[in-house]
Amino acid sequence: MKLANLEKERILNDFTQEDVANEIGCARSTYANWESGKREPDFDSAQKLANTFGVSVDYLIGNSKFRNADELAQKYIELVKQVQSIIEHADYKSNADGVFLGGSDKYSEDELEVARAAAKAAIDAMRKLNRQKDKYRTTR
Asked: Of 68, 74, 100, 107, which is the most exposed, with the fewest CB atoms less than 10 Å away?
């Protein structure tokens, strides 16, 4: 498991290799070998590194462009809002069959069905996410 973003995160957080090694409880040489790709950490060490930098292990190894779950959730919310905006500004069909850019007559019935399902799923997912955020929101 090559840690593609390890050096980037260390520099971004203004840490030395020694700082990170001390934080996670390993030798500086061990950490340096991980950063250079000469060695690979075990999963527990990778998790400690991710926790130290406030990122996910997936991000550290280069499997995600999102540093953590908050960034991923924010991107998801942005996409759902874009879908809602498209729906709100789309051409409404007079038969109330749905909303589609350019009018529903430009799409096959299969395409319309997929669009309806996708729009409904996106809105339902955003509502569920908003309910979960409200559930865990702390009041002061």
From this structure: 74
